[in-house]
Amino acid sequence: MPAPEGATALEAAVLTHPGRKRHVNQDAVGQRFTPYGGVFIVADGMGGHRTGEIASQLAVQHILDHLTHTPPSPSALLEAFEEANHAIYEAGQRPESRGMGTTATALLLDLPYALIGHVGDSRAYLLREGTFTQLTQDHSWVAERVRQGLLTMEEARNHRWRNVITNALGSFPHARVDLIGLKVRPGDVFLLCSDGLSGVLENEVLQEVLEALPPEDATRRLVQLANEWGGPDNISVAIVRIQHVPETAPKPYALPLETGEPVTLRLGEEAEAVSTQVIEPSRPQSFWRKYRDLIFLAAYVALLLFVLLNQR
Known about the structure:
The chain crosses the membrane at residues 291-309. The chain is an alpha+beta fold. Helix content is 32%, strand content 25%. It has a single domain, classed as PPM-type phosphatase domain (Phosphatase 2c, domain 1, 4-Layer Sandwich).
């Protein structure tokens, strides 16, 4: 059976490995070629016993299934993450599954566009014309302190709380997802990976391997290098190389991506040229979220009155 038209425009490979220190691999990876390009995902699960393994597999399964049965668009990518979040959250309500969650970074290629959905501290990188760029921002305690100027990159890399995640699929009833988009160019190479790779190998090493080897060989080499450097965590890698960009009809969604530079996508609003905006699906505010500040103010006033009255 011939490959879909979009698949002939790219070369891709995914690989996951438990590493040298973990007995269970709680990471999961997935890829599917489609007529418009493909879907590629890396997920890093968390939770006791087998819950992390289940969470990452649920994320990969639901995101792949949704995006291969729905016309590609930023909204479809967001819906896929929301569907995965719901499945993991529901599974985590069982007593034996408390604490279940997973990171997820997914690349949706709707050629000539690339759309990236991101939750957690797995990462997406772009190698373009000799420049290696991290497209996503980590949702972690140390990364937030680095952005605030309270920690240096070196301090964050060695901090005892470097594995504390501030956002994960399945932690809350609704997902908080970063959404990034760009127009691809021939020769672009995308790397998705869990922190079992990015936390061990320097960017210069990642770039060198991507420049030297095709995707299938590069995935094996990166896993090998991470294990040679100790393999302290599960290691997951997805690499996609754009061979050429086919001529396509105009897309049904309008995005300011023609410059080819990565931008944050905010559905229904103008995009920004930085990948920091958290994207949330529109939904009614709960009573607590809507009136939270008023409740706090009323409680403060009541406490103050109580103290004053009891001083007489």
